[in-house]
Design brief:
twelve-stranded mixed sheet, 331 residues, 14 strands, globular, TIM Barrel, alpha/beta
Length: 331
């Protein structure tokens, strides 16, 4: 029986974010501690077959039509290409995309495209090697740049760049990053730093806001609001110097867009999260392993989404961040 992932406020989730691993080969300050985290034990991670099962369930029975693979770093998941290929074969109209740091993408991009991947988002917070090393705690800027260019050459279109600006680290680099994106034909989106870092360094009073980002860009570029409706997309878009190129700004903290949210989330260990900032989760993995039918699994998922709050409350000073950091939830 086909259902919808609808909540009490009438929002329908059609976009599934799937975390394939909590591991990563970088240690970005806004995400992980310098020494990493205690990884989720392997027996608790969904197997490739379990991931495929739940993805097909989401599409066949729950109306999902977009899937984004995240992590941690999803390129570290050995079965990534197989998972994408299985979905493309069974559901060729479902749009699949990937969020990655692009390290190693020069070796895997052609195979991912052949498997059925359509779009890619790459986290890139600076084009300066020293700043990259300071922020990511790894000297891997060239590896990331090589991966980004390989993605474009392999036919992934558009290539989107996600950037988080942090005070006193890379907050002065917004114009340089936009010039880089314009030069190569990539789509740049700035994202406000969110309170999901494992070290707890985020501070509301020092974060770089969407208004700050816009102000810094306008000092060097002519930006006019894009006329196309945003819909459920989180980014507010601006035409750069009259267009057609655009830049996006995602104000998750200061300009929340909860009322238009159409996302549901599946963690690497099989937990359903109805919001990135939810305080609770619903265990789908154990139900799957216990032999529940697909109808029963769909009911569990639908019930989890029905309980979604009206908003994340992230713009409220009393906001409490989730127990899991971003790397364990999935972007």
């Amino acid at each position: 029986m086909r259902k919808q992932l609808i909540d009490r406020y009438g929002r329908v989730a059609r976009d599934l974010r799937v975390s394939l691993t909590d591991k990563c080969n970088l240690r970005c300050q806004y995400c992980m501690p310098a020494d990493g985290l205690h990884w989720i034990p392997k027996p608790e991670i969904l197997t490739d077959d379990e991931v495929k099962h739940l993805l097909n369930l989401a599409v066949d029975r729950l109306g999902i039509n977009q899937i984004r693979f995240t992590g941690g770093e999803p390129l570290l998941r050995p079965g990534l290409t197989s998972i994408i290929a299985d979905m493309a074969e069974r559901h060729p109209t479902v749009e699949m995309s990937l969020t990655t740091n692009a390290i190693g993408l020069d070796k895997t991009a052609p195979a991912l495209v052949e498997a059925g991947l359509k779009r890619i988002n790459v986290s890139l917070d600076t084009v300066d090697r020293d700043t990259f090393t300071k922020l990511a705690r790894r000297d891997r800027l060239q590896d990331t740049l090589t991966g980004i260019h390989a993605a474009a050459e392999a036919g992934l279109d558009p290539v989107k760049i996600n950037t988080v600006l942090m005070p006193d680290i890379n907050d002065a680099e917004a114009p340089d990053l936009l010039r880089f994106a314009l030069h190569h034909g990539y789509e740049l989106r700035f994202i406000e730093q969110m309170p999901l870092d494992a070290d707890g360094i985020w501070k509301r009073d020092t974060m770089i806001t969407a208004a700050d980002i816009l102000n810094r860009l306008q000092q060097e570029f002519d930006l006019t609001p894009a006329t196309e409706p945003r819909g459920s997309a989180p980014a507010e878009k601006w035409l750069v110097n009259g267009g057609p190129a655009t830049v996006g700004i995602i104000g998750t903290v200061t300009r929340p867009f909860c009322g238009d949210c159409d996302r549901t989330r599946l963690t690497a260990d099989g937990q359903i999260r109805n919001c990135l900032f939810a305080q609770g989760e619903t265990d789908l993995r154990d139900a799957l392993r216990a032999g529940h039918t697909d109808d029963e699994l769909a009911d569990i998922w639908a019930q989890a989404m029905w309980g979604k709050a009206a908003g994340a409350g992230i713009d409220d000073p009393s906001f409490l961040k989730p127990a899991r950091p971003m790397s364990a939830i999935g972007g």
